[in-house]
Task: inverse folding
């Protein structure tokens, strides 16, 4: 089966999303208990969407060599940030990505 | 008037709970009543959510959004999923986003499921092909979720492939499905 073609625009979009989600993670961790149920759940669903995109779009684009060198660098930086954020992810019981954060 | 709305909410939630937790199958009219209710109930108009990094810097209603600004959930979801993440076609307005959600809920192609999300509360989800509503993010499906404990929609975004992170949901039951199976 032919590999899905993932456009450079889409990769760019999802890399920006990933970095923004990690900024929000840090901020939300500080105020998690102050957040109302609706805001918490809405953000949890967005986090799950982001992890899904990380696994099914960004990682797929990386392993199928559809990223430019600049995108690859930024993708590795994103994975490194996720690795650094793992304690926070675990404290909030968020979904952890099913991609290697260390072996790229 | 408030009593009538509360009664309706209670009735709709009871129907959803019965479908989610008992062997009873909803008849077509009951399912349609749920969908009609969800199509008009929308996001919580009284709540506020923090804008966050994804939409910081966007211009909205004459202002540049800061990460710490607080906005109604409908606006936050529009700005995140339509403007910043480009899941809907470029140029989709706020009103068109809300209308597309209502249309998706009423679509004959809508697949409908209940699930217990993260062991907390019951939710009803609706999945519809993105079709003409596909944006640059290039996703195949629109997902809309209603949370019983809030009595409002809590998200409307797009995704590809399987329903994201089914592992954080329990007791998934499909009330109407073209091809998906209960887990």
Result:
């Amino acid at each position: 089966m032919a590999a899905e073609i993932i456009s450079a625009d889409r990769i760019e979009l999802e890399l920006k999303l990933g970095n923004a989600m990690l900024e929000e993670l840090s901020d939300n961790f500080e105020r998690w208990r102050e957040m109302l149920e609706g805001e918490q759940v809405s953000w949890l669903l967005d986090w799950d969407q982001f992890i899904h995109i990380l696994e099914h779009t960004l990682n797929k684009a990386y392993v199928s060599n559809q990223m430019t060198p600049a995108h690859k660098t930024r993708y590795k930086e994103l994975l490194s940030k996720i690795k650094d954020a793992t304690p926070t992810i675990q404290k909030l019981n968020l979904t952890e990505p099913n991609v290697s954060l260390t072996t790229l | 008037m408030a009593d009538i709305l509360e009664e309706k909410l209670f009735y709709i939630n009871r129907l959803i709970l019965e479908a989610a937790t008992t062997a009873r199958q909803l008849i077509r009219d009951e399912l349609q009543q749920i969908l009609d209710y969800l199509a008009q109930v929308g996001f919580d108009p009284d709540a506020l959510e923090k804008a966050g990094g994804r939409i910081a810097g966007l211009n909205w209603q004459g202002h540049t959004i800061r990460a710490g600004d607080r906005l109604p959930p409908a606006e936050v979801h529009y700005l995140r999923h339509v403007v910043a993440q480009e899941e809907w076609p470029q140029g989709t307005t706020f009103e068109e986003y809300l209308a597309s959600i209502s249309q998706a809920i009423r679509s004959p192609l809508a697949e409908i499921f209940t699930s217990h999300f993260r062991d907390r509360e019951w939710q009803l989800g609706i999945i519809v092909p993105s079709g003409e509503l596909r944006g640059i993010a290039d996703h195949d499906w629109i997902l809309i979720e209603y949370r019983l404990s809030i009595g409002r929609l809590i998200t409307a975004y797009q995704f590809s492939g399987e329903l994201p992170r089914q592992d954080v949901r329990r007791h998934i039951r499909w009330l109407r499905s073209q091809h998906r199976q209960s887990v």
In short: Helices of chain A lie at 8-31, 37-63, 69-84, 86-91. The longest helix of chain A spans residues 37-63. Residues 90 and 96 of chain A are 8 Å apart (CA to CA). Chain A touches chain B through 32 residues (CB under 8 Å).
